[in-house]
Amino acid sequence: MTSVLFVCHSNAACSPVAEALLRHLAADRYQVMSAGVDPAEINANALVALQKLGVNADGLHSKGLDSIEGEYFDIVISLSEQVEASARAVPSARFMAWHFDDGCVFTPHQATKMIQEIYERIKLLVLVQDRQEKPLW
After folding, report:
1. How do residues 2-42 score in pLDDT, each as one tens digit?
2. What is the pTM of this model?
3. Which of 45, 80, 96, 114 could connect to 102 by a Cys-Cys bridge, CB 3.0–4.6 Å?
4. What are the pLDDT digits (tens) for 115-134?
5. How far apart are the C-alpha atoms of 109 and 99, rounded to whole Å?
6. Is residue 15 a contact partner of residue 6, using CB atoms and an 8 Å limit?
7. What are the structural domains of the chain?
8. SS3 for the chain, per residue?
9. CA-CA distance, 114 to 42, in Å (whole number)?
10. φ/ψ (deg, to 5) at 7
11. 108 vs 27: CA distance, rounded Å
């Protein structure tokens, strides 16, 4: 099972959304966590948008990077430029930077747009990972 950590500034929108989406798409193949540099309450519009899409948001809660201290991940993904250095410091086999505007989720429309953008990247991640593990030829 591939372990993935999503990191954003507050762990209030982008990273918990990414955590929920990857679990929704491929929980059987991925162990997923999210954390933030300066944790804050998860954005209510993001939770509502996930639920409208049928994505289970139960159990999502904001966590700081200190909550994963001492853990090793196969993949760490930074979701905002301002936390890239902190995310790179987390022990991992691979690091990726997907930069989103983590402070943009103030309306339901903005939440839905952010979720769609993150979901597209997660689908590509899963596709690439699957192809690396099971070559086409």
Report:
1. 999 999 988 888 999 999 999 999 999 999 999 999 988 98
2. 0.90
3. 80
4. 899 999 999 999 988 777 66
5. 19
6. yes
7. 2-133 (3.40.50.2300)
8. CEEEEEEECCCCCHHHHHHHHHHHHHCCCEEEEEEECCCCCCCHHHHHHHHHCCCCCCCCCCCEHHHHCCCCEEEEEECCHHHHHHHHCCCEEEEEECCCCCCCCCCHHHHHHHHHHHHHHHHHHHHHHHHHHCCCC
9. 14
10. -125, 130
11. 26
Distance, CA of 36 to CA of 116 (rounded, Å): 21
Q: Which amino acid is at 110?
A: Q
Give the whole-angstrom CA distance, residue 81 versus residue 39: 16
Place of tokens 């999210």: 34
Residue with tokens 């899409």: 53
